[in-house]
Amino acid sequence: QVQLVESGGGLVQPGGSLRLSCAASGSSFNIYVMGWYRQAPGKQRELVAVITTGEASGGSTNYAEPVKGRFTISRDNAKNTVYLQMNKLKPEDTAVYYCNALNGGVYWGQGTQVTVSS
């Protein structure tokens, strides 16, 4: 079992920044991909960004088109933590953001609310 705990959400004005963190614990030693997804009210959960966590992979990343150039996903393997730096936030980024991890099973965090509003 893998436990994921997100933090860093909140209320921010358009154009502002937030950084989300996701700490993995439990059977986290063989996680090979971690990512962030989001779900806005009335919409399906969607991919935001993913990163490979194995040293051999070099931390390959992939981003959804709406966030390219504004969001950056990164990792700290020593801390089993993945980050999502979100810049130039827009009202349409408002959603609950979920951390995800894959190690043969699929694991989700509890979610953290991000609200972009003036």
Low-confidence parts lasting 5 or more residues at pLDDT below 50?
none
The overall pLDDT average reads 92
SSE run: EEEEEEEEEEE
Oligomer: single chain
Percentage of residues in DSSP E strands: over 45%
Please report the total strand number as a whole number: 11
Largest sheet report? 7 strands, mixed
Coarse shape: globular
Number of helices: 0
Calculate the terminal CA-CA distance, rounded to whole Å: 40 Å
* Structural classification: mainly beta
Radius of gyration: 14 Å
Helix content: under 10%
How would you characterize this protein structure?
With 118 residues, the protein is mostly beta strands. Strand 9 and strand 10 (106-108) form a beta hairpin. The model has no long low-confidence stretch (mean pLDDT 92). The protein has strands spanning 2-7, 10-12, 18-26, 33-39, 46-52, 61-63, 71-76, 81-86, 95-102, 106-108, 112-116. The N and C termini lie far apart (40 Å). The strands form 2 sheets. Strands 2, 4, 5, 6, 9, 10 and 11 form a 7-stranded mixed β-sheet that branches. Strands 1-3-8-7 form a 4-stranded antiparallel β-sheet, with no helix packed on it. The relative contact order is 0.33. The protein is globular.
